[in-house]
């Protein structure tokens, strides 16, 4: 896996990034042999089209990448990532002047194309290397790529090798690498520490894979930022057992935890000024005689009572206790990230991450940042009239309202009930998975929302 840029190299071969209207002008300055090769290949700057042109010695001398017209560019991202695997081994450079956003996107896309998940089978990484384009903050882009690779590795690892205990071990290694403090409350100690919902959801697992709350802290100055990630390492659905087709990729149900840990890695690697706290309720939603049941009424850390109408709506339960705990520290901003609802996927599909917040400034900042760093987001409403849908009457809250309407919104409203201790709260209902390969994003685990948050979090409270 190659997630770094090459050292400056005067012999680096050029990559020319061209739109359809730019090819003719570019060709006018090229030797006859190059013009003939481009004409023969029919290269006209079409979106996603690439061409490697050999020099007189028969070796690759330059490469062309077509990016299409403006409309085509809006339909895709990380075009340079697709080119990386087409290039032969060696050092390359971008020879076309790009605006800052396109330049950063190209640099990040190139590094993301170097990611491979090869833990269980050989997977060839691309051998072509890129000199960081002039003006790119290479260290920042490399830190972002490393954080994303960490997230992807955590999600892609199957549950037999990524249980709550393993997730804890990974968090401990991360803390050790960056000098962060870490504390873990596990098993029946969760009851003693008043984290009953985390215990209830995870208690059906084996002792070795029992429930736990991972609490990582780093930084001594700047805004107080708390990231809460859903760490359901495998979700059977509990007694409301999922059908087999729905259970197949439930190793990704800890995608929220993986994303906040990857974001934390980037924040710490860059040495950003903030008081960072990461809370991960890590559980396996298993089936045994100890499973929590439909119809149970559980009492949360906050004292609120919750009627369980579906044990497959467990993520909001473990997050509720973690959000309450996080709010007791009065952070400037608290963010929850979770692979929470199928309703979000029905609404916006796998590639777009919906988020919720009542803070207009944070919402506009996230939308703009997501556009700028190619981390697509879409704001959804905390729609107050739906509050009644999560109030069953027999208890304070219902974990799975009947009717099937507005499932992502009602889940977000449920979580907001536990996040009141934070000055500002945002919730991301992510998918955490790329169902089919795309440039810079192989099929499998993926982080969503982290790059946009990285842009806005340092300015919280300023």
Task: Provide structural commentary.
One of its GO terms (molecular function) is manganese ion binding. Keywords: Aminopeptidase, Hydrolase, Manganese, Protease. The chain has 462 residues and is of the alpha/beta class. The chain folds into two domains: 13-136, Leucine Aminopeptidase, subunit E, domain 1, CATH 3.40.220; 142-459, Aminopeptidase, CATH 3.40.630. Helices cover 33% and strands 20% of the residues. The strands form four sheets. Strands 6, 7, 8, 9, 10, 13, 14, 15 and 17 form a nine-stranded mixed beta sheet that branches. Strands 2-3-1-4-5 form a five-stranded mixed beta sheet. Strands 11-12-16 form a three-stranded mixed beta sheet, covered by helices on one side. A hairpin with a 5-residue loop joins strand 2 (50-54) and strand 3 (60-66). The relative contact order is 0.12.
SSE arrangement:
Layout: E1 13-18, H1 23-27, H2 32-41, E2 50-54, E3 60-66, H3 70-74, H4 79-84, E4 90-94, H5 100-112, E5 128-130, H6 138-156, H7 164-178, E6 181-186, H8 189-192, H9 196-202, E7 212-218, E8 224-229, E9 231-235, H10 244-247, H11 255-270, E10 275-285, E11 297-299, E12 305-307, H12 315-327, E13 333-338, H13 342-348, E14 353-357, H14 360-372, E15 377-380, E16 397-398, H15 407-416, E17 425-429, E18 433-434, E19 444-445, H16 450-456
Parallel strand pairs: 1-3, 1-4, 4-5, 8-10, 8-13, 9-10, 12-16, 13-17, 14-15
Antiparallel strand pairs: 2-3, 6-7, 7-10, 11-12, 14-17, 18-19
Protein name: Leucyl aminopeptidase
Keywords: Aminopeptidase, Hydrolase, Manganese, Protease
GO biological process, one term: proteolysis
């Amino acid at each position: 896996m190659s997630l770094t840029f090459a050292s400056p190299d005067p012999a680096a071969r050029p990559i020319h990034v061209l739109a359809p209207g730019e090819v003719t002008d570019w060709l006018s300055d090229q030797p006859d042999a190059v013009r003939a090769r481009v004409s023969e290949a029919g290269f006209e700057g079409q979106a996603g089209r690439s061409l490697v042109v050999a020099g007189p010695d028969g070796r690759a001398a330059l490469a062309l990448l077509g990016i299409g017209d403006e409309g085509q560019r809006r339909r895709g991202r990380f075009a340079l990532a697709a080119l990386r695997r087409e290039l032969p081994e060696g050092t390359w450079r971008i020879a076309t002047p790009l605006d800052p956003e396109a330049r950063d996107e190209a640099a990040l896309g190139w590094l993301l194309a170097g990611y491979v998940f090869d833990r269980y089978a050989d997977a060839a990484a691309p051998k072509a290397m890129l000199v960081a384009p002039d003006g790119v903050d290479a260290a920042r882009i490399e830190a972002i790529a490393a954080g994303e690779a960490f997230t992807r590795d955590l999600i892609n690892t199957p549950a037999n090798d990524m249980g709550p205990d393993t997730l804890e071990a990974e968090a401990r290694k991360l803390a050790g690498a960056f000098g962060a403090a870490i504390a873990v409350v596990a098993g029946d100690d969760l009851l003693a520490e008043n984290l009953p919902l985390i215990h209830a959801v995870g208690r059906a697992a084996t002792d070795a894979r029992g429930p736990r709350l991972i609490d990582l802290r780093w930084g001594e100055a700047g805004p107080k930022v708390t990231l809460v990630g859903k760490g359901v390492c495998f979700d059977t659905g509990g007694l409301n057992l999922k059908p087999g087709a729905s259970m197949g990729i439930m190793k990704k149900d800890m995608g929220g935890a993986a994303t906040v840990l990857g974001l934390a890695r980037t924040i710490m690697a860059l040495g950003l000024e903030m008081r960072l706290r990461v809370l991960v309720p890590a559980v396996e939603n298993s089936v045994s005689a100890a499973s929590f049941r439909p119809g149970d009424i559980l009492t949360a850390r906050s004292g609120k009572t919750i009627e369980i109408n579906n044990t497959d709506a467990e993520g909001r339960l473990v997050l509720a206790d973690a959000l309450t705990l996080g709010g007791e520290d009065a952070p400037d901003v608290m963010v929850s990230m979770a692979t929470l609802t199928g309703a979000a996927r029905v609404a916006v599909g796998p590639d777009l991450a919906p988020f919720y917040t009542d803070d207009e400034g944070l919402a506009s900042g996230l939308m703009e940042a997501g556009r700028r760093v190619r981390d697509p987001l879409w704001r959804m409403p905390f729609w107050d009239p739906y509050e009644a849908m999560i109030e069953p009457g027999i208890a304070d809250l219902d974990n799975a309202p009947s009717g099937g309407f507005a499932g992502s919104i009602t889940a977000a409203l449920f979580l907001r009930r536990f996040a009141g201790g934070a000055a500002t709260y945002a919730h991301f209902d992510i998918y955490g998975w790329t169902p089919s390969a795309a440039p810079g994003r192989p099929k499998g685990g993926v982080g969503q929302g982290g790059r946009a948050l990285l842009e806005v979090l340092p300015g919280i409270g300023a």
